[in-house]
Amino acid sequence: MSAVAMSRKLLGLAQSRVLASMSLVKLKLKPPVVRQLEIGSGPVRKDGWVTLDMCRGADVFWDMRRPLPFADASFDRVYCSHVLEHFAHRDLKRLLQQVLRILRPGGRFLVAVPDASLYIDAYLKRSDASDLLRYRPAVVSGQPMDVLNYIFYMDDQHRFMFDRDNLAHHCREAGFERCAPRAFDPEVDSAARDYESLYMVCHKPEAA
Ligand SMILES: C[S@@+](CC[C@H](N)C(=O)[O-])C[C@H]1O[C@@H](n2cnc3c(N)ncnc32)[C@H](O)[C@@H]1O
């Protein structure tokens, strides 16, 4: 890595630390009053929700590889759209446990992720996948394998893939129960991502 790239990286890390510390102070002074949290929201604010992301523009700047900065049972609902696939398995496990912790007993975790089985089907059937391959930097060769490299690596952004069964499995393993597919919900889900999304709802046990 060049000296310039190294100093940019260090500067970025230092900025992230400062922004995360500022978020922590803000949360201490003014804990959230709303009971719904969107994690990996992108740079957005939403009425009735706390948004959290590792980017400026969300209510809380936070790297979710660290424990989430909220007390136990702080939220009734936690939502994430196209986020879990960005975490390596070890970080994913910790994140799901953290989501469970900050939900109240009986609270709901609403998830949307890309459905890897759509891409695998397209590869096996050699069908036209052009409608799936919308993020052009991740389409590299025009070969059938593009469709698998696209969804599994996404230009180095994706770390873990899901179908309906393993999404439910990993959520159950973290302590959730009644993990079931759900329909597109216009209140929370993105119509623009519907073509490739798998939706699930999981519950925190009442007794937890
Ligand atoms: C594909 S985008 C999805 C954004 C939005 N939820 C949507 O559906 O359009 C993934 C989001 O996860 C966030 N993200 C990825 N890793 C993260 C981490 N370790 N901590 C916090 N946010 C992270 C990214 O910054 C990005 O906003």
What features would you highlight for this structure?
single chain; 208 residues; alpha/beta; Rossmann fold; 5 helices; globular; binds S-adenosylmethionine
Report on the structure:
- It is a single chain.
- The protein is an alpha/beta fold and 208 residues long.
- It has a domain at 34-115 and 162-203: Rossmann fold (3-Layer(aba) Sandwich).
- It has helices at residues 3-29, 89-102, 116-125, 146-153, 164-174; strands spanning 36-39, 50-53, 60-61, 75-81, 103-114, 177-181, 197-203.
- The chain starts with a helix and ends in a 5-residue tail after the last strand.
- The mean pLDDT is 96.
- The structure holds S-adenosylmethionine.
- Residues 40-42, 53-55, 63-65, 81-83, 86, 190, 193 line the site of S-adenosylmethionine.
Topology readout:
Elements: H1 3-29, E1 36-39, E2 50-53, E3 60-61, E4 75-81, H2 89-102, E5 103-114, H3 116-125, H4 146-153, H5 164-174, E6 177-181, E7 197-203
Parallel strand pairs: 1-2, 1-4, 2-3, 4-5
Antiparallel strand pairs: 5-7, 6-7
Helix pairs in contact: 2-5, 3-4
Give the gist of this structure.
This protein has 208 residues and is α/β, with parallel strands linked by helices. Helices cover 34% and strands 20% of the residues. The chain binds S-adenosylmethionine (SAM).
Structural class: alpha/beta
Question: How much is the average pLDDT?
Answer: 96
Q: How many separate helices?
A: 5
End-to-end Cα distance, whole Å, is: 47 Å
Which strand order does the major sheet show?
A: 3-2-1-4-5-7-6
CATH homology superfamily name of one domain: Vaccinia Virus protein VP39
As a percent range, the share of strand residues is: 15-25%
CATH topology of one domain: Rossmann fold
Bound molecules: S-adenosylmethionine
Overall shape: it is: globular
| CATH architecture tag of one domain | 3-Layer(aba) Sandwich
- How many β-strand stretches? 7
Based on CA atoms alone, the radius of gyration comes out at 18 Å
**SSE string, helix = H, strand = E?**
HEEEEHEHHHEE
What share of the residues lie within helices? 25-40%
Largest sheet: 7 strands, mixed
Low-confidence stretches: none
CATH class of one domain: Alpha Beta
